[in-house]
Amino acid sequence: MRIRRVLAAVIATAALAGVGLAGAATATATATTATATTAAPASLTPGECEQGGGTVDRSNLSSAHLPTCKGGKFNGQEVD
Fold first, then answer.
1. How wide is the angle at C-alpha 54 spanned by C-alphas 51 and 60, nearest 5°?
2. Half-sphere exposure of 67 (CA within 13 A, CB side)
3. How many whole angstroms from its chain centre is CA 31?
């Protein structure tokens, strides 16, 4: 009878630890996603492009395309 109680306690502890690890993993993934999102804006200003070491490329302008930042930290991102 004592073995059953000990075994039940071990199983319950393992189950609770698993839930804690899953919660910690979710929190870490959320923090990583937030960091990645704030690292580079969706579109830049011309000044941000130039401060990042690039130049604004307006050679492919149309109604579907915005100018892009060429070179530097923001290479390939759209410029508003």
1. 130
2. 14
3. 8
